[in-house]
Each structure stands twice: as structure tokens, then as C-alpha cells.
Write a structure and sequence with these properties.
three-stranded antiparallel sheet, 3 strands, binds zinc ion, single chain, 1 helix, alpha+beta
């Protein structure tokens, strides 16, 4: 399972989230410190093209409203 690293935009707290690849509509994580959903994903551990492609596809699916 990939580990996604996020940084909270409210309190700048960094945290990691384990996310299942098969989860098609992952809910946005919340900051464990302040509970804010304004978090930004950091890409620091994976730099392969395959991984970037996967993240791009995941991101575009996140932008889409749930059907
Ligand atoms: Zn926070």
C-alpha cells in the first residue's frame, strides 16, 4: 500500500496516510491535529514516472464529483 504524505494548510502539521490502491473514491484526509480538511499532498518518497502517472489519475478522479 502506498503511503501518502500530507501537510495541513491550517497548522502546517505533516502526517502520513495509508491508502488502498483499489479504493476508487478515497475521501480526503483530515489533519489529525486540528481536524482541517485543507491538506496538501506531498510527493517526496516516490519519483518514478509510473507513480506520478498513478497520482495524476488519482487526482483527476478526485476532482470529479461523485456520481
Ligand atoms: Zn492541522
Amino acid at each position: 500500500m502506498p503511503i501518502f504524505e500530507y501537510q495541513c494548510q491550517q497548522c502546517q502539521h505533516r502526517f502520513e496516510v495509508l491508502q488502498r490502491v483499489r479504493q476508487e473514491t478515497p475521501s480526503p484526509p483530515t489533519c489529525p491535529r486540528c481536524g482541517s480538511q485543507e491538506v496538501q499532498r506531498l510527493i517526496s518518497r516516490f519519483h518514478s514516472n509510473a507513480w506520478s502517472t498513478f497520482l495524476d489519475r488519482l487526482e483527476s478522479s478526485l476532482d470529479r464529483p461523485p456520481v
